[in-house]
Structure formats: structure tokens, C-alpha cells
Amino acid sequence: MSEEPMVSVPCAQCHQRFGLPRATERQLRESGETFYCPAGHLLSYKPSKAERLSRLLTKTNAQLTRRAQQRNALRRSNAALRGVITRMRNAATREEAGT
Ligand SMILES: [Zn+2]
After folding, report:
1. CA-to-CA distance for 19 and 9, rounded, in angstroms?
2. CB within 10 Å: which end of the chain, N or C, has fewer?
3. From CA 35, how far away is CA 69, in angstroms rounded?
4. Centroid of ligand 1 to alpha carbon of 37 (angstroms)
5. How far is the CA of 23 from the centre of ligand 1 (A)?
6. Which residue has the higher pLDDT, 12 or 52?
7. Residue 21 C-alpha to ligand 1 middle, in angstroms?
8. Distance between CA atoms of 39 and 57, rounded to whole angstroms?
9. Cα of 82 vs its chain's centroid, Å
10. CA-based angle 35:37:38, to the nearest 5?
11. 47: pLDDT confidence band, cut at 50, 70 and 90?
């Protein structure tokens, strides 16, 4: 049986330190999933500032992309409507001229 490397983790509530396999600790840190200390306190890692900012950046980029797409769609729609107006205006002008 191979020894898994352990890390010592303090409980935020009872301050008792306990061991977690390094891989488990990393996974809990990345996922933000909840876990329990040996005394039964519910714990979870808060996402780091870098992680929060990274998620915010991803979200903001997605919003910018969506807004750019909406803007382009509106521009195309405006151009199409301008074309309709021009054709109707020209038709009305021809009718007035009796041609
Ligand atoms: Zn505890």
C-alpha cells in the first residue's frame, strides 16, 4: 500500500488540525465543495481572490461578446429597415410624379 501524501488542515470552527490526502485537499480547494472536520463541522474553501477575479473576467468577456453580437444584429436590422424606407420613399415619389 503506497502512502498518499497528506496535508494538515485546520478546522475554521474548532481549530483542530486534521489530515487530508493532498489530492483531495486540492480538489476541495478547486471545487469549493463542502467537507467535514473530524468533530463534524461543515467546512469549505472559499475561492481565492485570483479565482474569483478569473471567474469575473470570464463572465465579463462573455457579456461583452453577447452585447457585441446584439449590437451587430441591431445594425443589420437597421440597415435592412433603412433599405425598406428608401424603397417606399422612392415608390411614393414615382407615384407622385405619375411615372
Ligand atoms: Zn471542527
Report:
1. 6
2. N
3. 42
4. 5
5. 21
6. 12
7. 17
8. 38
9. 37
10. 130
11. confident
Main-chain dihedrals φ then ψ at residue 24, nearest 5 degrees: -65, -45
Q: How far apart are CA 22 and CA 30, in angstroms?
A: 12
Q: How much is the pTM?
A: 0.49
Torsion of CA 79, 85, 91, 96, to 10 degrees: -150
Per-residue pLDDT tens over the stretch 35-44: 999 999 999 9
Contact 43, 36 (CB under 8 A): yes
Give the residue extent of every domain in the chain: 6-44, 47-99
Ligand 1 center–CA 40 separation, angstroms: 6
Residue whose C-alpha cell reads 500500500 in the numeric block = 1
Whole-number Å distance, alpha carbon 92 to ligand 1 midpoint, is: 82
